[in-house]
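Researcher: We're teaching a course module on how sequence relates to structure. For the next exercise, students receive a sequence and then see the predicted structure as C-alpha cells, so they can try to spot secondary structure elements on their own. Here is the exercise chain.
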Amino acid sequence: MTIEAGDFKTGLTLIIDGKLYVVLDFLHVKPGKGAAILKTKLKDLRTGTILERNFNTNMKFEQAHIDKKLVQHSYESNGIYYFMDVETFEQYELPESVIGFSKNFLLEGMELYLTCFEDEVLDVVIPEKVELTVTQTTDAVSGASSTSTKDAVLETGLRIKVPQFIKEGDKVIVSTVDGTYWGRA
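Model: And here is the predicted structure for the students to work with:
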C-alpha cells in the first residue's frame, strides 16, 4: 500500500530507498513561498540509526507491514538464541547482535514477541520489567544506611545494585530498559 508523505503518522513503518523506517516525529512546514514540506525524524529498523529528512508532502512511499509473533525462548548456545513460535512451532535462530542488551533478561521458557518484516526478524520485544532470582550477593552490612546498595548477580549473569536487605535466592523485579532494580518480587 502506498502512502503520501502528507499522511505520515508517528509509528508508521515505511520502505524508503529500499530501507525500513519507522516515523518517530514529523512536522508540516508551509514556507511563505512554494509547496509545503514535511520534516521527519526516522529510525532505521535494521540498524537503529536515526535520521532527519525532509519530503514534499505529495511524495509517495510504500508502507511496510510489520508483524509481531509471540514466541517462547528455548535456549542459548554459542551466542545464538533459539525461539519457538507458540502457534506454528516454527523455530527462529537469532545471533547475539540482534538480541543486544535484552540477553540479560532472557530465561528459558519466557514468552516474548519478535517483530518481523516478511521473513526477516528485526527485533526482540521483551516486557518492561522482568522477575529474576539473585544468585550471588554479599550479606547486609550492619549499620549501613537504609538507602545504601550492594552488588548482586542475577540468574542471567547481569550485575545490578540492590538494597542491603536483598539476599541470595530472593526474586527481584528489574527494568529491561536500563537494568536497574525496581523492587522485590
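Model: If you want an answer key for the exercise: The first helix runs from residue 96 to 99. The chain has a mean pLDDT of 90.
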